[in-house]
Design goal:
By secondary structure, this protein is an alpha/beta fold. The chain is built from seven helices and eight strands; from the N terminus they run E-H-E-H-E-E-H-E-H-E-H-E-H-E-H. The longest helix has 18 residues. The chain is globular. The two termini are 24 Å apart.
Length: 207
Amino acid sequence: MRTISIIGLGTMAAAIGARAVRGGNLVEVTGRDSAKAEDLAKKLGGGATAGAFGAVPAGDIVILAVPHAAAAPILAQYGDALAGKIIVDISNPLTEDLSAKVTPGGVSAAQLIAQAAPASARVVKAFDVVFGEVLADPDRPADVLIAGDDAHAKADVSAFIETLGLRPLDTGDLTMAEWLEGAALLIIGLAKQRGNADFTLGVGVPR
């Protein structure tokens, strides 16, 4: 049994947290609104707890489930509290209308987070090309594309993803995060055309 900390209280945090509890993990949720954090922890059940925002997270894996614009201020507030942690960035750096990326070419949100995080923290990109609607269905399989520079961190995140009933697929080092964020822009465009986000990007290889 592992402990996972989730910073953020939105749809993605709730969906990942619910799957994590179901997969036998202990879950800690934190957010600026402590009352909402307590409510989410109660909703998740399974021994989930609400942590103190800005304090050292209980889990070795910390899922940063916040919008791209919120990441830098949160990293600044946590500071060395994230030292030695695996930080999972799920964000997509998109414009308000979700039509374009806001990061310059050659730079990903995950790389910016890695630059802002403590030197001993290891950043892994994951979950950004899986819609919350898909994750919210506990029995629905999906591929989770990941990227990161540290092989051990990716192995730990992959093992966690498997407990969620999902399949991790390693796309390479953190430079690949830019392309994962581009893929998110692609599937968001498809969702707009379809009128729903009830689908997922997958790879057709045997499980």
